[in-house]
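Chain A, query sequence.
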Amino acid sequence: MSQAKEPSLSLADQVAIELREDIIGGRLLPGMPLVESELVNAYNASRNTVREALHHLGREGLTSYVRNKGVIVRRLGVEEVRDIFKVRRTLELQAIAASKPLREYQSDLMLESIEAAQLAQDRENWQAFGTHSLRFHQHIVGLMRSPLLDEFFTHIAAQMRLVFSNAPSEETFQKPWLERDRQIHDLLVDGHKQAAGEALASYLNDSESLLLDILSSIPKP
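Chain A, predicted structure.
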């Protein structure tokens, strides 16, 4: 799902947002080339604008430059995954710990992500499922009501999507998380903030452990 383009953003920022959303949506996968000429045509932008957008994504840890290949969507390793989860614990657990009673619109946003994930599961669309699960956790960070943290977490969500692609079976990896997202939401709705934080901490520990096991099993080139 693409974000609406904001007039205040430069064209390079807009291109970077579109590409980041394509990563979060699972449409751009690790190792895929980001060819300048194709992006120039797709966005009706200059080469300098496209290069600036790719530079933005590089700073966010989403792309890398490979000699003789150019810019590609980045592959993340064990150390990067550990760092991502360090950031996730800091942001998401703090968001719950500092949260006030859940407002109706905040609950609605979370429920929309949960229901969209349920629909994706029913349709066995595991790519979409992963995207909606990430949206749910973006709404957790949104409890802090900080536009800067919201923007930063979109970078983390995009990196998480790149890590998901390492799972041999996305269905096997994604399926357990829906009910745990629902449990966290329900605990927040009922005002059980400490229990919600504990459920989220357990969720993040299990997710990190599983992803590290998956990465460790991949043969090194």
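The beta strands are 63-66, 70-73. Residues 1-6 have pLDDT under 50 and may be disordered.
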